[in-house]
Amino acid sequence: MSTATYGPATGTPAFLRRAGEADGPGTAIEPGALRRAFGHFATGVTIVTTRDAGGAPVGVTASSFNTVSLAPPLVLWSVARNAYSFSAFAQADHFAVHVLGAGQRDLSDRFARPATDKFGGLALGQGHGGVPLLPGAPVVFECAAEHRYEGGDHLILVGRVLRITESDAADAPLLFHRGRYAGLAQAAG
Ligand SMILES: Cc1cc2nc3c(=O)[nH]c(=O)nc-3n(C[C@H](O)[C@H](O)[C@H](O)COP(=O)(O)O)c2cc1C
Asked: 20 to 30 A Cα–Cα from 35, which one of 7, 54, 97, 179?
């Protein structure tokens, strides 16, 4: 077994630093190492949709989704600043988070590629704020955009859940771990 350590052994933690204060010695963590390390944190996979200013449907595959609060009902996810659909999400009043099932890997791949028409051939529903709804997700959270926070090269979007649609099919989740799709390993016994 090998271990690797990145970043400074000592120094002031970022959350204790004052605005503008330097990171401290040798704090640069190489992005590749960071991406690899982040990948150990297994997640579900979602597709988040909205409409752009011209009314065109927009969607991205996102694993940054997380639950925030029960009362009020809040969720969050973050959108990359270099995504084509960044400005659409940054300005959107509403968005919908589709939690994907194990059988929706192709859909995940489709929305993980920058493309002009990711929605071709899909039977779309219409949610709060006219947001496009995709078929087949185990659960969909329709949200009003409530807060936006700076998040480095991402923008963090917090949404208030307005409607939940759960599918009858108790589908196993699509998971993502260390750069690959994964399924739930069923415990024996
Ligand atoms: C499993 C997985 C998770 C992803 N999670 C996110 C995410 O949380 N936020 C994000 O902005 N992009 C995420 N991406 C990348 C986007 O899906 C990808 O960059 C997509 O091309 C963005 O679409 P756009 O460029 O048309 O806006 C993820 C991709 C995959 C495969």
From this structure: 97
